[in-house]
Amino acid sequence: MTEQLFSQYQDFERTDGKSLIGPEGFERLSTDLGYDMSQVEPLVLMWKLGCTEMGTVPYENWSQSLTSMRVGSLDQLRKEIDSEIDRLKSDKKEYQQFYRKMFDYLKTGKQKVISVDYAKDILPVIKGADNALFDKFVAFLDANSERIKTINRDQWQSLLELSRTMGDSLADYSKEDAWPALFDDFAEWEHSQK
Amino acid sequence: WTKYGDSAKITHNIFAYLNRHWIQREQDEGSNVCDVSTLMYQLWRDQFFMSIRNTLLDSVFSLMTRIRNGQVADINLVKSVADSFVSLGNDDSGIASKRMEVYEKYFLEPFIKSSVEYYREEADRLLQEGSIIDYIVRVSSRLQEEDDRVELYLHESSLKDFKDALNKVLVTRQKDKFYSEFEPLLDARDSLNLKRLYSLVARTGKGSALDPLRDIFSAYVKKAGLDAIKQVSGSEETGGAIAKEARLFVTAVLGVHDLFAGLLHDAFEEDTGFSKSLDNACKDFINTNAMCPEGEARAPQMLAHYCDTLLKKGSGNVRKAGAEGASDEDSLEAQLSQAVCVFRYIKAVDVFQKFYSQHLSRRLVYEQSVSSYGEEMMISKLKEISGVDFTSKLTRMFTDMTLSKEMSEEFKEKCRDGDFAIPFDFDMKVLHTVSWPLKAPDTKLLLPSELSSVCSRFTNYYQNKHNGRKLNWMWQHSKAEIKMFFPKATGPAAKAGYIFHVSTFQLAILMLFNDESGPGTGYDSPNGPTLTLEQISQATGLDNDMIKPELEIFCKARVLVSSNNKISGDSKFTLNANFKSKHLRINLAVSKKVEQKREATDTMRAVDVDRMYAIQAAIVRIMKTRKQLSHRQLVEDTISMIKLFQASIGDIKKGIDTLIDKEYLERSESNRDVYNYLA
Predict the structure, then answer these.
(1) What ipTM was reported for this prediction?
(2) Full-model pTM
């Protein structure tokens, strides 16, 4: 059953002999599940399926994930993803894993950083209830697009911590704390926005 | 009393036998029997002394008062009374601690009390009648009197208590008045009264009592320093010339420092606390003031420049000969010592080092040192303070100079042996890249043929001598002297020609005008060839941007003439046949102000880069040892590990970020305030 499902979306045009679902097939899968590509569902789907890159699932990961989720059909998959999205709203640890994985998907090639544009696109989409700071951060990146072109992993991961600790404002931010230097600039900018 | 004492002694001896045997035995058995002399003293005390005690004391006190009022009285009487009190303490049991009891209770306490009363009255009276200064003078002498006198009659164990009591009534009570009088005395530079004030307050303890004064002193010095520098910063005479600015700055600083160091010596007995106050104040006002904005590290730059003027020939530095006609070298040493004195207070030491080594390299390469003894003296002084890391590079520069001289000789000899005649006076210096702050050239140059043969020959020679080393010719730092004969010259110039001091680039350009077979046109004209910008560029390999300024210099000096009176693509340049000058030696190789400014910014940029690496290296070193550390602790440790400059928290954070990126460190999962070292 798993195999059958897989072959519906598999990318047969590959020349390297690897069996995987590519971005195109993945998009079809998401649509079939009733998801909007600009929303968070496909991202969660990617994560749960064990995508190695954005929209790419090798067969081993596919079959392993579906087995551990005890899913055999599209309907069941959809139910599972929907409940996962619910879980992410309350389970902090779970959300952190999901959030961190997003960085890997946004990376291209052998780079260790992600482009600011990708970050700006994805942050509003994956924003949860306790990430009020994401919007401000995106605005900050907009305002400094000349200077800041990339985000590294440490900054990405720390952003989640920052938003959870500070709430929706950086009034309590202190330069003497162990935040990446970028956040010092963020705090300064945010304070000047008042 | 004396008589009694004598008879007591005699009686004691008479009964010696009894003392020795029976009493001894009794004492051993623990009964309260005491020997005869003790018994006798006890009798005196109990029967006689207790009753007359008070009268005795009163007369002692009035005796003291008479003495203090300057009247004549016999102090020995007081002494014997004191002694008698002591002796009377010999208790039955003979315990030492109880011995003084009589003395302390019945004599010392009342004595101190009466003395205190006396002086309290006097103090109050003085304060009413006169100023604080008068008070200080009078009290100082009073206390001195008492100090001298007290040893004559008081038992030694009570000296401290007595002095303490006097100090309290005469000094501590007036503490606040003293503190407020301190600053006016500083204003007046009144070292005599400052000394008195200091001694008075010091009597009550050198530590905390003096701290308020130390703080006032520190703030005062700092203000004086800032004011002095503000005064010279507005001065017109510098005209922006950094050398003059530097001299004004250093002179102002030294003026303030020496003034207060003098006070420290004269009035404060080189007190360590005051010395520290002076140092802290100097550190503050020297690094950030009207001439040195915060964070720009101008102070070390100016100090380095000042040292350059001291050590460079022809910098217009007028050295004052010492009063007794001290030698030039001595006065140079004195000035260098002063410069080093300021150096101790510089915070951004790495900036000083970079600029100093730049100035030094220029002095060495252009042979502008005024005295090699002076150079070495300076380096050894710097070594004393900064250690060997910095000065080793400087020493290496000197070594290179010596080695180059030897090599030059050897090379010339080889040429002679090989029958190769060097067609001009050739001198080179080989510099070790790492030790010298000079960059590899970024412009290529096609040498005139006369030079290129010699240079390539030398390159061969060197590479044979030191296999595997690479030589880079630094044309931008090389200079030449060229003798030019102008067709229409008259007088001595006609025979001897004019000597021009030029840079190598300028040389390359000028020699084109010599070359009849070169790219120029019109060689049959009496002025030699005519060349365009394009031709010059092609022949020398230099860019137009490099050539234009040189042509400007040549035209301004009227060595060359431009056909259209400007420097453009269609200008044609020829030698100026009518060139005339009063001087036979002319320097055309002047460095431009713009260049100088650019060099300074480049140097500061290099300093920033070095600092970045220094911070990262420090962080790695710390984390390697500690393996795990909190953010605050890491920042603290990094700041204290770096001695050459003050690392800012922002820069340290950037360093941490970079190291996380390079995977030397990671944030701990469990506590994001903590870093782990990644091996």
Answers:
(1) 0.83
(2) 0.74
